[in-house]
Amino acid sequence: MKLSSSVFASFCLITELLGIALFLRGFFPVPIKSSLSSKSKLSDLPAEPVVGSNPNSTKVPPPLFNRVVIVLIDALRDDFVFGPSGKRFMPYTRNLVESGSSHSFIAKARPPTVTMPRIKALTTGSIPGFIDVVLNLNSQALLEDNLLWQAKNTGKRIIFYGDDTWVRLFPKHFLEYDGTTSFFVSDYTEVDNNVTRHLDSTLKRDDWDVLILHYLGLDHIGHISGPHSSLIGPKLLEMDDVMKKIHTSVITTEAEGTLPNLLVLCGDHGMSETGSHGGSSEAEVNTPLVLISPAFPTKEDMGEPVVVEQVDLTPTLALALALPISQNSVGRLIPAVFEKASLREQLRYLHINGHQLSSLLRDSNPGFHKEDGYEQFQMAEKAHGSWMKLYVEGNTSEVLSNIAKKVLKQYLEALQAMSAALSKQLGKYDMYSMMVGMSLILQEMSVILTLSALWTCLIHSEALPLHGALINWRLQPGDCLGWYRLKYHEIVLDLNSTWTFSLWLLGLRLLLWSRVCNYHIQFCSQVSFGEQWTSSTKTSCKNHNELYFTFALSVIT
Ligand SMILES: *[C@@H]1O[C@H](CO)[C@@H](O)[C@H](O)[C@H]1NC(C)=O
Ligand SMILES: *[C@@H]1O[C@H](CO)[C@@H](O)[C@H](O)[C@H]1NC(C)=O
Ligand SMILES: *[C@@H]1O[C@H](CO)[C@@H](O)[C@H](O)[C@H]1NC(C)=O
Ligand SMILES: CC(=O)N[C@H]1CO[C@H](CO)[C@@H](O)[C@@H]1O
């Protein structure tokens, strides 16, 4: 059979690309998507469950806050606020955390701990996959249902100053914006001054509802000289000043008759001991989350901050502003924020969040019936209905509030289980397409190798050593179709026929691949997504932030 070499070459190329594509499809978890194509609407909300009577409410409870200011400090690690450096360099904020009307949390960011996927996580409530690391530098408008879209859709006016990634993700959402470029890592002054210079005038205006600030300077200092650099202190002091400025003008001075305002301090990801980020070590994953508002009770002492997921902020803010929760959000609301609402409203918040999570679970997991959380939610919803019946009947006894507390607990457990099931699913790999993809590549490699070996020895036997040079072996051609002698230092391998030779090369590649894959699959599934944070994986992963990239490279080469 005669095969033109260009046809053959294109055939090889197509197979290789197909193989790589299949493999990558399996490796990057398919994002969980709701089956509804459009965005969440208030009118889609389920009615409040009431046994017997006809429910007449489908609304979210009224908003808890009037204006919201979100201060996002890039690479703000939890100890920069809650640790000793927080005490030294962020005294004003620390005072609010310890004895102000505030709630403090450690928000766990999921790897990859890189800015763009984190912004997506904070706004959509879903967990972006590894593919987002690749797209980090090339972010495009975010089309998925998200908090900012929902806010804008209900007429909220949003102002943004800071990292221009936001401007690229949300090109039409802001009433006013000023994007700073994160391109020059050596600049840690101007990036922040460009944000702060707008503060004085913006804080005096009353034509906005949501103000988002994204400060990049701290992250840049981390990249330049690490978390123990002498530049960190002054930067944190500067950030503390910003917090003070906002707190005194927006939070403590409120107009009579309006709802209280909310100030949110958070980080997108942390910073490792070397000042980098991207991986899944504790220092990179733990970010502080401080919610400050006169609506919250005053603290007696700080205590240990509760651990929440970063994505929990999304449904919390949505419900607190009376917006629908974004469709693909896997977060669950933070109960502390809703403590002051009436029992009926608290139950309603949990019901809405549970309904959203259970719809997402139903759409993304064919075995959703068997999930514990799903069943728990159904039961809680029923109990909620019975409670509402008593409530509507005007029962005000102690029994009523006791039942409500039980239902609250049931809901919270259901939310936790459903959120965990969804997050786990995001971490699953499609082993089948990975295998098919890999074997396609390998088969194609073996064809090329065999043919090239044949070609080499039949036609150009002088080119034979080249083949060996690739893998650092010295090759001595004997009888061409007969045997090869491979020599590597003292080891001599006699290989009979080109076929055995190709197989041998193939084996080498297979070994390499399986080692890389095995390592990465274990690494990623346990550390990035799994719930089991054993101490051994923790230590073994500390220094492997760059593994995601190595892996992508090894797939492609
Ligand atoms: C429904 O509306 C009626 C009249 O407006 C009110 O009395 C009743 O409490 C409402 N039911 C619920 C469940 O809110
Ligand atoms: C800061 O603002 C100035 C003036 O608008 C602009 O020229 C400069 O590029 C900005 N710096 C950064 C880092 O975005
Ligand atoms: C309230 O409901 C409880 C439980 O069903 C019942 O025992 C109690 O008598 C009711 N109280 C009133 C005032 O209706
Ligand atoms: C290792 C081995 O089996 N070598 C054999 C390869 O084939 C040649 C001739 O075809 C034999 O002489 C070798 O002994």
From TrEMBL:
Pathway recorded for this protein: Glycolipid biosynthesis; glycosylphosphatidylinositol-anchor biosynthesis
One Gene Ontology cellular component annotation held by this UniProt entry: endoplasmic reticulum membrane
Transmembrane segments: 6-28
A GO BP entry: GPI anchor biosynthetic process
UniProt KW keywords: Endoplasmic reticulum, GPI-anchor biosynthesis, Membrane, Transferase, Transmembrane, Transmembrane helix
InterPro entries named in the record: Alkaline_phosphatase_core_sf, Phosphodiest/P_Trfase, PIG-G_N, PIGG/GPI7
Membrane topology listed for this record: Multi-pass membrane protein
Principal place of residence: endoplasmic reticulum
Signal peptide: none
Subcellular location as annotated: Endoplasmic reticulum membrane
Gene Ontology molecular function terms on file: CP2 mannose-ethanolamine phosphotransferase activity
Domain of life: Eukaryota
UniProt-listed PANTHER family: GPI ETHANOLAMINE PHOSPHATE TRANSFERASE 2, PHOSPHATIDYLINOSITOL GLYCAN-RELATED
Similarity-based family: Belongs to the PIGG/PIGN/PIGO family. PIGG subfamily.
Protein name, entry field: GPI ethanolamine phosphate transferase 2 isoform X2
Source organism (scientific name): Ictalurus punctatus (Channel catfish)
